[in-house]
Amino acid sequence: MRLIKGDPDGKDLKIGVVISRFNTAITDKLLEGALQGLLDCGVHPDNVTVVSVPGAIEIPGAAKKLVSQVDAIVTLGAVVRGETEHFTYVCKAAQEGMIQVALDSGVPMTFGVLTTENSEQALARCGGAKGHKGYEVAQDAVELANTYKMIG
Ligand code: INI
After folding, report:
1. Catalytic annotation on 86?
2. Does residue 1 form part of some domain?
3. Which domain holds residue 37?
């Protein structure tokens, strides 16, 4: 049997982070955790490119522009249901768009877009009781970049 699983070792990797600003109180925390996750994997800060976009819908487009420059992309955002049907469309656009870019490019991408009923649930997932999605998906991106390199 041949097991292919990358190490969470980022010392030779270039990583892109696409962060949306909608619900900034949440996304600022996601970014902080993601940058820490990358540092803890040994990614050099000079090898991290952060692209800021207005909202989750804009994430796939920015990621598509970035793919040729990096080994993996971390996407971060916060879609909170609130009172509006818009929630469903924003979630779907962000999710499907990211998957399309990842499949078309072959560059690994991780999905750190929180989709929650309210802000409390989101905050619990960026350094609260439910862990830190930004930190997790940053480290997942490093592992995946190495996995893809191993597959060849
Ligand atoms: N964008 C988000 O990232 N989160 C949201 O919760 C959200 N809501 O609820 O509307 C949201 N909308 C903006 C959208 O992503 C685009 O930026 C906007 O439609 C302009 O294209």
Report:
1. yes
2. no
3. 15-144
Best probe residue, ligand 1, of 30, 75, 79 (max atoms within 8 Å of C-beta): 79
61 in ligand 1 pocket by Cβ < 6 Å? no
**81-124 tens-digit pLDDT:** 986 678 999 999 999 999 999 999 999 999 999 999 999 999 99
Determine the 3-state secondary structure of 91 from DSSP.
helix
Distance, in Å, from the CA atom of 97 to the CA atom of 105, rounded to the nearest integer, reads: 12
Sequence-ordered list of residues with C-beta below 8 angstroms from that of 129, at least 6 positions apart, any chain: none
| CATH code of the domain containing 133 | 3.40.50.960
With a threshold of 0.90, does the pTM exceed it? Answer: yes
36 inside domain: yes
Residue 47 Cα to ligand 1 middle (Å): 28
pLDDT in tens, 14-52: 999 999 999 999 999 999 999 999 999 999 999 999 999
Is 4 part of a structural domain of the chain?
A: no
Please give the Cα distance from 137 to 41 (Å, whole number): 12
Ligand 1 atom at shortest distance from the alpha carbon of 57: 15
Residue nearest to ligand 1 atom 16, measured at CA: 55
Q: Is 22 in the pocket of ligand 1 (CB under 6 A)?
A: yes
- Give the pair of three-digit tokens for residue 1: 């049997």
User: Does 127 fall in a domain?
Assistant: yes
Question: Among the options 86, 92, 103, 118, which is catalytic?
Answer: 86
